[in-house]
Amino acid sequence: MALIPFVFPVLFQRPLLTGAAWGRTVMFLAAARAEVLTGVAAILSAIAWPVLVAVVLYWFRKPIRELMATAVGIAASSSKVKIWQVEFDRDVQQQLEASAQEARTRPPAISEQQLGSPIPQTEVKAAARVRTLIDEAPPGSVRSEIQESIRQRMVGFAKEYEATRAALPSGPERTRAMNAVAAKMRTLALAACPFVDELADSADSPGRRLAAICILQMAPGMDRVEWLADRMAVEQPFVFFHASVALLNAVRKFGPAHPRELKKAIERALARVQGFGEHCDGNTVRSLTLALSELESPSP
Asked: What is the pLDDT of residues 188-247, one digit of tens each?
């Protein structure tokens, strides 16, 4: 109580805050208020979006559930397709490697006994296996992609044949290497039937024409008999020998129904090959002679 007479006059005689100090205080309070409002807005914004998302998810929960189920189903189906494609490629590659390996062991000269069955049964079975795999492919775009992969493989084998012929000197080693390529072509032949015309009409690619011939060995067609006979005039001996095998198989399939057309084409082909004289290809002569013999004396 003794201090009051001294403090009270001081308080009222001297303001607590000067004018400048009071202004700074007001500015500070205004800034603090702005920061508080900004913080509140940020909190509301952070809360609003999750709440909005939760409301939307709840409101559309049924279609979202159906959409998720569909997406899971598509993903599962896609995984199955990819697994199937991997297995398909692996199986086809195994068939190709087996056919090529067997072909490399065969002698270049073809015996009369071999002409009786010029396409090895291993290749016949391999081609049937690949054809079955194609038939078992899922319909639609997957099957179309598989068919296109077969086409690309055949085009690749055509290039391999051309490169092999250019790189190796004439002789048994080159013939065996080219036989291995032809064996791979025959392995895919039944699956590649839709591309026979495209391959046959490739004027600038003997490898593609060989691929067409290998298809016709496995799946003869009368509409290509004259074309096969023409090979004797325009192809290398290796290619026109395979054309002669295709003609032989055409006789075995169509001989009773089309004897005249086949005889005319084969006689023309044989005359052309024999016209090379001492340089004519013996394998081709034997193949065409056997075709004429079977045509004139068909098996019962």
From this structure: 999 999 999 999 999 999 999 999 999 999 999 999 999 999 999 999 999 999 999 999
The tokens for 158 are 């055509």
Q: What are phi and psi of 13, to 5 degrees?
A: -85, -25
CA distance 25 to 21: 6
Instruction: List Cα–Cα distances, 176 to 31, 116, 209, in angstroms.
Output: 92, 20, 19
Encoded amino acid at 139, one letter: P
For the packed helices 172-187 and 237-254, what is the interaxial angle rounded to 10 degrees? 40
Distance between CA atoms of 91 and 133, rounded to whole angstroms? 9
**Of 156, 81, 91, 78, nearest in space to 127 by CA:** 91
C-alpha triplet 187, 190, 196: angle, nearest 5°: 105
pTM of the model: 0.72
* Amino acid, res. 78: S
Tokens of 161: 């044949």
Spatial CA neighbour of 236 closest among 190, 192, 283, 296: 283
Q: Which two tokens stand for residue 226?
A: 């004259």
